[in-house]
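Batch job 17 of 40 flagged for manual review because the log was empty.
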Amino acid sequence: MTVQRADARRNYARILAVAEEEVAAHGADASLERIARVAGVGSATVRRHFPGRRALLQAVFSERIEALCARAEESAGAADARAALLDWLGALTAYAASARGMADALIQDGTDDPDHVNVCSARLTGAADPLLRHAVRAGAVAPGVTIADLITLVTGIALATEHHPDPAAEAHRLLGLTVEGVSPRR
């Protein structure tokens, strides 16, 4: 295990704090050069800590992703599997619609590289899969639906509503329409 020098840890923390502000203000296309300048480091330092934009976005949203994972894990055995899954999807939609850039962090970019892993989506998929399987067993969701499908739907909704006057409200409205197609009430 490599131990990071104190100045490298400070640089990482400063870069991440500035990146969080810049992504909140400008979305996933926040300038890496501006992040470096505001953090008081060189662009090479930013790239040393975050080898690409996706790595930076994953770090920016890691706490939110972990909170969503914890919520999914807590709800996996709920008595009302449909309600538990819809509650989790609502939370995912709220985060993705309110945190500029998060939907971009969740996008499955379709790379042909078999070693490429979208860390944010992979973490959510692993945590929420038991929640979905419970809903499928309860007959609340069609058997062919996957967590990747649901994350893709929420990501699309968040991206489609990003410039709406009230993105969160519109995203929740569209999620409601989607849910009726994925898991209609009986």
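Reviewer: the log was empty due to a logging misconfiguration, but the result itself is present. The radius of gyration is 18 Å. Unflagging and moving on to job 18.
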